[in-house]
Amino acid sequence: MPAMSEKKIRPEDDARDFAGAAWSIPSYLLSGMALYGGAGWLLSKWTGVIVFTPIGLILGVALAVYLVYRKHGR
Amino acid sequence: MSTLTLLASGEDKFTPPGLELFDSPPIIPGVVWFTKPVLLALLSTLIVVAFCWSAFAKPKLVPRGAQNIGEMGYMFVRDQVARPFLGKDADRWMGPLLSIFLLVWVWNLMGVLPLLQFPVASHIAFPIVLALGVYFLKLYLGIKHQGLIGYFKNMMFPPGLPKPIYLLLAPIELLSTMIIAPFTHAVRLFANMFAGHLILAFFSLVGFWFLFEKLTPLGAPIGVIGVVMTIAMTGFEMFIQFLQAFLFAMLAAMYIGNSLHPSH
After folding, report:
1. Between B175, B254, B257, which is nearest A35 by CB?
2. Complex confidence, ipTM
3. pLDDT 10s digits, B180-193
4. Beta carbons of B261 and A67 less than 8 Å apart
5. Distance between CA atoms of B237 and B196, rounded to whole angstroms?
6. How many cross-chain Cβ pairs, A to B, lie less than 8 Å apart?
7. Interchain proximity A30–B158, CB inside 8 Å
8. pLDDT tens digits, residue range B238-255?
9. For residues B204 and B231, what is the distance between their CA atoms, to the nearest angstrom?
């Protein structure tokens, strides 16, 4: 294993970050929607308050966008 | 082929092609699994092996012929796919990455090769097998290089976030990396090839139907549009085929890279 200890910003790192962010966005968005939308749907089912489902979906998307921003954004 | 069978059905109305395009009967009666996509997948493997053999088996100092093209492909995969994500480890992973890129590209090209004309990846089983291979490789490398606990810790708890936020974000990260990412990896390739094949079949059937089967003064211009669109869409489809092969290999490199070194 070559050592990866030295941390330098190379042009490749920028490209890596950009492509990584761009192509991992769909999978994060889907995960956020499935997870929190699913939780909201369960809440709706148990409480009978329908509005929990869209709230969960939107919360999931917002959290996923925030996660992508924190991981790849500057 | 399917165009001809549809035309032979003797209907009076134009019926657009549908899912029956993707049902292929066994080539040898009785051998159920051996269908056209399987044959094309085997053929693609042969093509990639033969190409790499002729390009790389006896390298010359001054490349000629197949070696020239092979080195162009190698440089492309190394500079655009491997190095941005793997850095110093890029050369060690060129074997699998170049194989994935070439195989997926040839699979996709089968969609526009005359007479063959069936994109292998439009049957989702094929991309699933490749994506699962990359997925297990990713898990193995991640656990090997970061440890079982370290791998999941680095994945779910990237440093620099307020504590309560982790509670909300860690499940998304876990679900994304473990389930959704390999799923989208396979589905992206499958869906592009599936839709592309449907579009090409539709426009060529429009051309066949209105120019050959039911030629009328009013229908002929529509048939001409169908032929023109078939040609334009074939060009566009070839671009998509290359792009999807590139993306599939690029995502594989990204997953491998993230397993070798935790993302910051």
Report:
1. B175
2. 0.78
3. 999 999 999 999 99
4. no
5. 6
6. 69
7. no
8. 999 999 999 999 999 999
9. 9
